[in-house]
Amino acid sequence: MPNEFLWFVLMIVNFIGILVFYRYMGKTGLYIWTAIAAIIANIQVVKTVELFGFVATLGNIVYGTTFLVTDILSENYGKKDARKAVVVGFMSLITMTIMMQIAIVFKPDVSDFSQEALTTIFSFMPRIVIASLTAYWFSQLHDIWAYHLWKNRFPQKKFLWMRNNFSTMVSQFIDSVVFCFIAFWGVFELSVFWSILWTTYIFKWIVAAADTPFLYLAKNMHDKGKINELVSTDK
C-alpha cells in the first residue's frame, strides 16, 4: 500500500481512538492517551518515510493528537485539566527514556534477537526525548494559553473550529522548529533537515485541521452526558 494511504488510515485510527478512550474513560482516558501518544511518537519519529514526494518522519500524527486532547480538555473542563495532560505526557517520556536506557545496558543472552534493534532505536532516544520534552512543554503550554485566549474572545460553539485551529497551528510551528533543531541538526544533510522540518509542520497542520470534526464530536458527547468518567467529578 502507498504511504499516503496508510498515513490517512493512521490518522483516522488515532482520532477514533481518542473518542473511544474519552467516551468510555472520560478525562482519565485522555490522560492515558496522552501517555501512550507521547511514547509512541518518540519511537516512530526515528523512522523517515516519503510522503507526497517529501521526506518526513513518522510520529507526526500520533504526536499531533496530543493537541486535540488538550483542546478537548480545555473546552470541556478548563485550563487546569488541560495542563495536567501536559504533565502526564512529560513524565511519561522521562520514565520511558530512563527505563529503556537501563534495559539496553543489560547483557543479552545468546538466544536474544532484539538487542541490536533496541539499541538502534533507543540509543538515539535521549536526544529525541530532550528535543521532544522541550518542544512539547513550550508548544503545549502555548496551545492551552492560546486556546483560552480565543475561547474568551469567541466563546460561542460555532467558533470552536477557530480556537481549535488558530491555537494549534501556531503551537505546532513552535513545536516543529524547537524539536527539529534539537533532534536533527547535524544528523541529516541540510536539504533533508529542512525537508523534515517543513514537512513535519505541514503534516501536523493537516492533522490539526482534520481533527476539528472530532473535537465537535467530543464536545457533543460531553454536552449530552455520554462520557463515562472513571473517576467521579462530583464534589
UniProtKB/TrEMBL annotation:
<feature type="transmembrane region" description="Helical">
    <location>
        <begin position="52"/>
        <end position="73"/>
    </location>
</feature>
<dbReference type="Pfam" id="PF02592">
    <property type="entry name" value="Vut_1"/>
</dbReference>
<dbReference type="GO" id="GO:0005886">
    <property type="term" value="C:plasma membrane"/>
</dbReference>
<protein>
    <recommendedName>
        <fullName>Probable queuosine precursor transporter</fullName>
    </recommendedName>
</protein>
<dbReference type="InterPro" id="IPR003744">
    <property type="entry name" value="YhhQ"/>
</dbReference>
<keyword id="KW-1133">Transmembrane helix</keyword>
<comment type="similarity">
    <text>Belongs to the vitamin uptake transporter (VUT/ECF) (TC 2.A.88) family. Q precursor transporter subfamily.</text>
</comment>
<feature type="transmembrane region" description="Helical">
    <location>
        <begin position="29"/>
        <end position="46"/>
    </location>
</feature>
<dbReference type="GO" id="GO:0022857">
    <property type="term" value="F:transmembrane transporter activity"/>
</dbReference>
<keyword id="KW-1003">Cell membrane</keyword>
<feature type="transmembrane region" description="Helical">
    <location>
        <begin position="124"/>
        <end position="145"/>
    </location>
</feature>
<keyword id="KW-0472">Membrane</keyword>
<comment type="function">
    <text>Involved in the import of queuosine (Q) precursors, required for Q precursor salvage.</text>
</comment>
<keyword id="KW-0813">Transport</keyword>
<feature type="transmembrane region" description="Helical">
    <location>
        <begin position="85"/>
        <end position="104"/>
    </location>
</feature>
<keyword id="KW-0812">Transmembrane</keyword>
<feature type="transmembrane region" description="Helical">
    <location>
        <begin position="166"/>
        <end position="188"/>
    </location>
</feature>
<feature type="transmembrane region" description="Helical">
    <location>
        <begin position="6"/>
        <end position="22"/>
    </location>
</feature>
<feature type="transmembrane region" description="Helical">
    <location>
        <begin position="194"/>
        <end position="218"/>
    </location>
</feature>
